Structure formats: C-alpha cells, structure tokens
Amino acid sequence: MKERKPKGRVSRALHGLAGGRGASADSLVHEWQVLPTVAVSCYWIWLYLAYSLDVFVVSSDVLVRFDILQKGFGFLGAALFMVAVSLLRTAAFFERTPFLALFSAASGTSIVVVSALARAGVPVALPVVLAVWLLMGAGTAAAFLRLFGGLQDAGQGRFCAVNALALFLSGFFYLLLLGLQDGIRLVLTVFVVCIAAFAPLRPPEEAPDAARAPSARGDVPSPDAGNAAVAALLSFRGELFLLSVVFGLAYCLGISLSIMSNSLEFIWLSLCVPGIFLVLYSVFLKDRVSVRVLLTLLFPIAAFLLLLLPFSNPFGLVLCCSLLVMCFTTYDVLNVVRLREIIAANRLPGAKSWATGRYPQLAGLVLGWAAGYGMLLTDDALKVLLPAVCVGLVVAIVAMLTRYVWRYSDVAGGAAHVPEETVGRVHDAIVLRYGLSPREREVMELLVRGYSTDRIGKDLHISYHTVKTHVYHIYQKVGVHAQQELIDLVEERLRLMR
C-alpha cells in the first residue's frame, strides 16, 4: 500500500521530524514519539538541575568552592561508570535486565535525600556528600545508556528529531525551575529522575525489524567488522575530548559567575537555542547537510569565543561561557546522532558501544572542570591562568581542525581519490551485510555518487516509480532515511579502509 503523503506545511514538517515514515503526518505526537521525547527531556533537566543550579549542593566552611568540587565529582562518577561499562567483555546484562533504570533512579533519589537532610539541618559528612555526587553522576550515565541505547533502533531522522525536541522542551522547563524554591525543585527532581529511568521507549507490541535493529536479535558481527566498528567509535575521540575540555572549563566558569551575579537565565541559551537549531536541521537540512559538516563548523566558533574569554568583563565572560556551552550542547547532540549511526550500521551491542564512544567526552569534562575549579580558588589564579589556558586550547583546536579537514577532504571530494578496488570492497560489504539484490546494488552505487532519481532511471533504463521502490527498499534494509545518510555511511567505511 502506497504511503499517503501529508499535505500542508505543518503536516510536512511533522512528517519530516518523524523521519518521513509512518502512516500519518501527525506521527510525531504518537505515543512512541512523545514518551521518548519526554524521557530525554527529563534526562537533560536532571543534568541541568544538578550542574546549573545549586539544588543538590551541600554547603561547607571547610573547603573552598565546595559547590564546584561537588559537581566535579558528579562528572567524575559519570566518567568512571562509562569507562567501567566500556571495559566489560560483554554488556548483555545491562540490556536484558532493568539494572540501568533501577540504578539511575536510586542514584538520583539518593542525592535528593542527602540534600533534603542537609537543608533540614542534619549534619552530613563531607566524604558522604562527595560519594553521593559520584553515585549521582554514575546514575546520569546509566540513564544515558538506557535512553539512547533504547532509541538506537529508531531511524536516523526520528532519533535526531527526538533529541532536538527534547532539548528544546527542556530549555523551557529550565526557565520554569528558576522561579521555584529549592524544596519544590527537589520534589520535582524525583519525578524527573523516575520518568528518565522508567519511561517506555517503544510500544510493547512493536518489535524492531531485522533491518533496523539487528543487534536486538543477538547477531554478532565478524571480528574484522567489529574491530573496524570500534575504530570508528574511537576515530573522533581526540576532537571529542578536546571540545569537552573547553566545555568543562567554560561551564565551570560560567556557572560559578552566573550564580554569583544572579544571571542564570543565560544558561537557557545552551538548551533552547541548540534545540531550535536542531529542530530546523531535522526538518529542512538533514537531507542536504551532513552531520560531519556541522560538527566541523563548531570548531572555529569555539576558538573565536575562547579568544574573547580572557578580555571580557564579568558580563561578557558569562555570555561567552554560555555561548561556548551552547556550541558544545549542539556538538553533543550531533555527536550522539553520529554514534547512533555507527552503532546501528555495524550491529554493535548497545550499552558497551555507547559507553566506548562516550567516555572520552566525560574524561574531557572532568579535566576542563578541574582546570576551572583551580582558577576559581583565587582571583589571581583566574587572571593569570585563563589567558594562557584559552590560547593553548585555541592552538589545539586549530591543529585539530586542520587535521580534521585534511583527513576528510579527499573523502568529501568523492570516490575519485579512492581506488576503485577499495570502493568495490566497501560496496560488497554493504551488499553482503544488508542483503541487497543486484539491482539494489546498482541503484545504491548511483545514489552514493549523488545521482537523482530521474538520472538513475535514465542510466538503468527503468521507470521513475521503479527507482523509488528500489530506493525505499535500500533505505529500509540499510536503516537510513535519506540519500545523504547513505553517502555518509559509505564514506565512513571508505575512511576506515584507507
């Protein structure tokens, strides 16, 4: 039965956000879309409650800037949890049991209890406070693995749309939380954590099909394919680590100065603005601009803001830090989309693969946060160290960007710089892995070259509707939703083989 195309701009936009699939144009508001969007929104709200506000902070007169130290331990807990999961021989336990949900809910509730006791005047030992923050950070990491591992079977367009809408909605929730008392925030945190931990990510009656979720069937890729996939997950760990250091530094300084100047509204920029941009990207640009191009553009923006940081007044410092956090939030969501593409395309196990691709970011956050904490201990340290650190990070970003552009420039130019034998092996691997027919292979090869549907029909001497049918079957089998996603998949495999 032919899919009915939606009419009207709003319907087409909703249809595009839903990944261009489904029987109706309002599928975005179907339960399968709403529940994951709410769950991911609650995950972002949980993070910003913990790190952007002082809701869970326990005051102390013993240690200097103990509030910043506590939040740093939260990032450290998340990093240690991700490293531990990535080092496991198998992470099937996390996928077959509700451990991630129960652990994230328990850790989120524990810090609420400790914070409430401290506000009620009950003395809490400082090691206990730091241990609870470590546990809370590990809980946010567990929630991340559950949410994004559970959504990896969704299509690329739908996955990007859910994250974009969730980020946008969480920004408005953050603004609402600013006007509430800490006691109400603590109560709301319990609901937010429980929704992020237990919200269903797909209807029980719908099981992932073979093309979209091979990992759910327990298929194990060959050793060579597995090694190449792990290499793909780690191929951008340098850029992820570097930008995370910048983010950790900017976030630490920005949050501290925002709290001191009562200008926490600037943190709203880091949620809503990236959310709006990513929603627009999901609707209008995802078929025209690849994720890799957007990620590359964020590097010079971050370098420019870093150069302004040491020469700004307190207001400008908060604004620059907020813009840096906004850039990183955009990068973070796009990087999650890129991780999902690699994991889904290579049939990798969910929790272990997500942790492997994620821990470099958290390690960078810890290092950047530690640098910011050291600068905030004294005013002199901030004035002396900030210019030197910013210049050093700018130099590192320029070097990384140069390497990044050089590394992908030949691939971006097409297959002309790649031996035909290598291109043929990549096409053979895709055909074998996804079970494409000989005719579908011919169509795929022309799609990867950027040919339009009309051009493919003329070259292969088949009708327009036949080409559309072949394209639909290719997208279904490979697990993509647009020609650009198919091109990105082939380019990624070409890069790994060179």
From TrEMBL:
InterPro entries referenced in this protein's UniProt entry, alphabetically? Sig_transdc_resp-reg_C-effctor, Tscrpt_reg_LuxR_C, WH-like_DNA-bd_sf
What's the protein here called?
HTH luxR-type domain-containing protein
Q: Record's superkingdom?
A: Bacteria
By its UniProt entry, which Pfam families does this protein fall under?
Answer: GerE (PF00196)
UniProt entry keywords in alphabetical sequence: DNA-binding, Membrane, Transcription, Transcription regulation, Transmembrane, Transmembrane helix
Phosphoprotein among keywords: no
Single GO BP term = regulation of DNA-templated transcription
Query: Where is each HTH luxR-type domain found?
Result: 429-494
Q: Which SUPFAM superfamilies match?
A: C-terminal effector domain of the bipartite response regulators (SSF46894)
Q: Oxidoreductase: present as a keyword of the record?
A: no
Q: GO terms for molecular function, please?
A: DNA binding
Q: Transmembrane segments in this chain: where?
A: 34-53, 73-92, 99-118, 124-147, 159-177, 183-201, 240-260, 266-284, 291-309, 315-337, 358-378, 384-406
